[in-house]
Amino acid sequence: MMTTRREFLKRTAVAAAAPSALAMACAEPSVPSPVGDPIRPLVVSTWNMGLGANEAAWEVLSAGGRALDAVEAGVRVPEGDPNEMTVGLGGFPDRDGIVTLDACIMDENGRCGSVAALEGIVHPVSVARLVMERTPHVMLVGKGAQDFAVANGFEIENLLTPDAEAAWRRWLAEQGPERPPINVENHDTIGMLAIDQAGNLSGACTTSGAGMKYHGRVGDSPIIGAGLYVDNEVGGATSTGWGEAVIRAVGCFLVVELMRQGHSPAKACEMAVDRVIAKNPDWRDIQVGFLAVNRQGEVGAFCIAPGFNYALRTSEVENVMFDAPSRI
Ligand code: ASP
């Protein structure tokens, strides 16, 4: 059965409705509807930087390519953009002025790879993919990850751009708070989930983490189950925001498990945000957002505070931004 445009928008864009309608939608019993054809291919990713990333992923998906290739190609776009100051080249440094990057990737077979606290490599997601494909391990960190990258042909480059260095010097002069106020622009993650024409799911995420973090700090983004989780039988989830809170809740694994229990992506994200809230008494001072898709192609998101958005691209939705509903 063909999916009508109306059905499609209803199924994919619940999170784009007005807040009151959203609250109602989230309160409804939310077992995923088996009605209609699955939506595929599809790519969805976090924040405005998701638009460019989705286009690169869409080139792969629309040509019949694999979701794994799509998510890698997609998140490489902001990684390589020096003006994108929360990911890859040009990312905010740590408190010692060193840019350290976190990334991971996961495919439809549950295989995954990850790098954390990686210095000097523009595309950590591609290193993460090689960890998955060429080692018996899931995660490499720090110098070991960099050595592995160099041994596999990656070049070490200076990732600290003049703009990021200037921001760091300003921070040094002012000695800002250890945790930046909610919604400040010194940390974000591109998390991407894709379904290919064959119906297989993959995901990737990559970030420079919390700006002005302690040297060696690792956030949720490279941790499988925290910043990203994909189960081909169920769906996938990715997160952004204050990584420490997401790690404590094993956030993305939780979202996927809630979808496995029959909750829609929107409801699963909302329930995971509520878990984060329950575990963090200071939740009003942090932002956490989850983005999820189930294998039917239903998309949902939820966050603590207003401001989190995501970009969706399908054959019917031409790369549109949606605001995630929020608890505050
Ligand atoms: N979750 C990332 C981290 O904590 C940052 C972000 O997405 O805002 O490293």
Question: What does this entry look like structurally?
Answer:
The protein is of the alpha+beta class and 328 residues long. The protein has one domain (41-323): 4-Layer Sandwich (Glutamine Phosphoribosylpyrophosphate, subunit 1, domain 1), CATH 3.60.20. Helix content is 33%, strand content 21%. It has 10 helices and 12 strands. The protein has an 8-stranded mixed β-sheet with strand order 4-3-2-6-5-1-11-12. The protein has a 4-stranded antiparallel β-sheet with strand order 7-8-9-10, covered by helices on one side. Helix 4 (67-79) packs antiparallel against helix 5 and helix 9 (251-260) crosses helix 10 (265-279). The longest helix is centred in the C-terminal third of the chain and has 15 residues, at 265-279. It is globular. 56% of the residues are buried. Aspartic acid binds at residues 187-189, 207, 209-210, 219-221, 240-243.
